[in-house]
Each structure stands twice: as structure tokens, then as C-alpha cells.
UniProtKB/TrEMBL annotation:
<keyword id="KW-0963">Cytoplasm</keyword>
<keyword id="KW-0808">Transferase</keyword>
<dbReference type="Pfam" id="PF00156">
    <property type="entry name" value="Pribosyltran"/>
</dbReference>
<dbReference type="InterPro" id="IPR029057">
    <property type="entry name" value="PRTase-like"/>
</dbReference>
<dbReference type="InterPro" id="IPR050054">
    <property type="entry name" value="UPRTase/APRTase"/>
</dbReference>
<comment type="subunit">
    <text>Homodimer.</text>
</comment>
<dbReference type="GO" id="GO:0003999">
    <property type="term" value="F:adenine phosphoribosyltransferase activity"/>
</dbReference>
<protein>
    <recommendedName>
        <fullName>Adenine phosphoribosyltransferase</fullName>
        <ecNumber>2.4.2.7</ecNumber>
    </recommendedName>
</protein>
<keyword id="KW-0660">Purine salvage</keyword>
<comment type="similarity">
    <text>Belongs to the purine/pyrimidine phosphoribosyltransferase family.</text>
</comment>
<feature type="domain" description="Phosphoribosyltransferase">
    <location>
        <begin position="32"/>
        <end position="149"/>
    </location>
</feature>
<comment type="function">
    <text>Catalyzes a salvage reaction resulting in the formation of AMP, that is energically less costly than de novo synthesis.</text>
</comment>
<comment type="pathway">
    <text>Purine metabolism; AMP biosynthesis via salvage pathway; AMP from adenine: step 1/1.</text>
</comment>
<keyword id="KW-0328">Glycosyltransferase</keyword>
<dbReference type="InterPro" id="IPR005764">
    <property type="entry name" value="Ade_phspho_trans"/>
</dbReference>
<dbReference type="InterPro" id="IPR000836">
    <property type="entry name" value="PRTase_dom"/>
</dbReference>
């Protein structure tokens, strides 16, 4: 078994002073590490049936698309404002270092579809909570929120109470 934490690089003071960024690019450039990460992310799901995987821009796209392919599910990109070409629903939120918003196509998820929300990191939980709100606004049923890593010291899981939340790595 490959220890995935060896492939996560800390970048101090990025994107601003006082933030320690967890960089997954060393993991992405190693095909064995990618395969192991994908295997572990899929194991987090257990026997859940998934219709759509929603990946949050941009690092949620890497494994989100691979998970969707492995599950035979559709992939839905959730993006920053102005990046999606069709009619969207949008919601603003606060980050640990500023403000942002997410958008999703209005026809991305059908009522009652079972959805896996995936992103690379669960930090303060604001991004994931907004993503859940948008999925539910479209009528999706969130089966699980799944992350490559959780920064547990930021208590982001508290914003996701009522959802099944899993992560491969915890810091």
C-alpha cells in the first residue's frame, strides 16, 4: 500500500499569509499514487449507488471524473462564476481567506438522482456546504461528501452535519 500523505506537499503562506496550502500535484504526477488514491476514494463509498458525481472546481475535477468513470455515473462540474456556458444556479460563500461563489447548470441533476459530492480538501466547509445547497436545489439526494483530505483542525465537518462525510487523509 502506498502512503498517500507522502505525496502531499505543504506550501506555506499560499494563497495568502498564514495559510498552509496542501498541494496535491506531487500525487497527481505519480500514476501509482493516483491509482491508490482512486481506490481509497471508491472504498469510502461502500455499496452506495451513485447517479452523478459533482466535482468542485478545480481540484475536485481530477478525481471526481475518475470516480464517475469507475462508477458508470455522470460527472457534473461545479464551477466559479462565469465559467459555465448554460443557465446556472449560483450561491456565494465565505472562504478562510476571502469570498467566492459556485455555479452549476440548472439541468445538471435530475430530481431524485443520487449524488456523490467530491473535492480534494475539506477545510472550513463553506465550499462544500454551498455545493450541497446547490445540489439539493436541483433535487439531488446527496449520498456522500467525499474528499481526498480533511483539514480537521478547521472543523469544516461541522458545516456538513446531516451528510455522510468521508476523507482518505486527515490532518
Amino acid at each position: 500500500m502506498i502512503h498517500l500523505d507522502k505525496f502531499i506537499r505543504d506550501i506555506p503562506n499560499f494563497p495568502k499569509e498564514g495559510i498552509r496550502f496542501k498541494d496535491i500535484t506531487p500525487l497527481l504526477k505519480d500514476p501509482r499514487a493516483v491509482k491508490e488514491a482512486l481506490t481509497q476514494l471508491l472504498e469510502l463509498l461502500g455499496n452506495h449507488t451513485i447517479d452523478k458525481v459533482v466535482g468542485i472546481e478545480s481540484r475536485g475535477f481530477f478525481f471526481g471524473m475518475l470516480i464517475a468513470q469507475e462508477l458508470g455515473a455522470g460527472f457534473v462540474p461545479m464551477r466559479k462564476p462565469g465559467k459555465l456556458p448554460y443557465t446556472t444556479f449560483s450561491e456565494k460563500y465565505e472562504l478562510e481567506y476571502g469570498f467566492d461563489a459556485l455555479e452549476i447548470h440548472e439541468d445538471a441533476i435530475a430530481n431524485g438522482e443520487r449524488v456523490l459530492l467530491h473535492d480534494d480538501v475539506l477545510a472550513t466547509g463553506g465550499t462544500a456546504k454551498v455545493a450541497c445547497n446547490l445540489i439539493e436545489k436541483l433535487g439531488g439526494e446527496i449520498v456522500q461528501c467525499n474528499f481526498l483530505m480533511e483539514l480537521s483542525f478547521l472543523n469544516g465537518i461541522e458545516k456538513l452535519q446531516g451528510y455522510e462525510v468521508k476523507s482518505v487523509l486527515k490532518y
